[in-house]
Amino acid sequence: MRDVLPDLESWWQAGETVGLATVVGTWKSAPRQPGAAMAVTPDGSVVGSVSGGCVEGAVYDLAEQCRATSVPVLQRYGVSDDDAFAVGLTCGGIIDVFVEAVSRRTFPELGGILADVRDGRPVAVATLVSGVGTSPVGSRLVVRPGSVEGTLGSARFDTAVRDDARGMLEQGRTGIVRYGPDGERRGDDSAVFVASYAPRPRLIVFGAIDFAAALARVGAFLGYRVTVCDARATFATRKRFPEADEVVVDWPHRYLAATAVDERTTVCVLTHDPKFDVPLLEVALRRPLAYLGVMGSRRTNADRARRLRELGFSDADLARLHAPIGLDIGGRTPEETAISIAAEIIATRHGGSGAQLRQLSGPIHHDLSAPAGDPSTTFGDPSAPAGDVRASAHDG
Hints:
Layout: H1 5-13, E1 18-27, E2 37-40, E3 46-48, H2 56-69, E4 73-77, H3 84-87, E5 94-102, H4 110-119, E6 123-130, E7 140-144, E8 147-150, H5 155-171, E9 175-179, E10 190-197, E11 202-206, H6 210-221, E12 225-230, E13 246-249, H7 252-258, E14 266-269, H8 274-284, E15 291-294, H9 298-310, H10 315-318, E16 321-322, H11 334-350, E17 388-390
Parallel strand pairs: 9-17, 11-12, 11-14, 12-13, 14-15, 15-16
Antiparallel strand pairs: 1-2, 1-5, 2-3, 4-5, 6-7, 6-10, 7-8, 9-10
């Protein structure tokens, strides 16, 4: 929903009622992921998309209906590969869409949520999209690291959802969580959609070279908060890296040791100079990172690995390094190399192989939104869409 928030804010501030459709679950080759949204305004204009065009017309009509009646609806589109085209979902997947009316009356918390997202403060919105309980469908719980706003009907339910939403927010995950009627974590009576608005994940690029400038552009396009760092003030300038959110002049290892990173952070080391690389990688290999890529020839990488082993790192530690960095697409220019690196980052994040799709069989889209082994994320069960997370760590 992040894409439609600026327009949604202007309509909400003006006192308008908007029909908002949000993808809350997907199965098989669905075109959009949970959280994708489409808004329909009183003048009939549309912002956003829930299916890339497949079922937009039907969702538009349902959004108009909900805007008029203020009665939320959870609707499934697509049934099987054989008749998906007949129902409008030409990709053959299934999406669950939650459609509701959004206004100052129905969603008074929206102003604070918009301010949090705009200012980069983490916030999660948990919405009851189906089930039984004392609160109606459409009830919300707004969860922040230090506070909770709203209710889903009972203290036990609110506590369970609060804890799970905070965990999802820390990981930047969005999806369905299922509960019993009073928040029991092993129940299946109610579905709560948790939309996480975490700050943008970080992309830290070390080495103020032309390849870094191209990678900063691609990283910004992909939604990362981009930092370029180099110890050489002559090269690390705002003029050379206008797309970066920040340009830092510091020794790479010192900067990485002092800056905040998490499991969503991507680090790309483009310096290919041992006096920079080895101290930096000694720090990086001890930090929680989503991706750690290092530029250099095979000879350079072999020498780098030898130096790191001498510092006590094991083969398992070195297996975290994507070195040489990027996928083999034959790229040579800085821009082509940046695409190669970005492709590997995306493949790592979503579990892709990097192979040509025409050489593969099975689902096109991978889903890693829930913990490994969670049966609710396996393909082939339309009752458990991708992104559906069963909160079973302990019984509520």
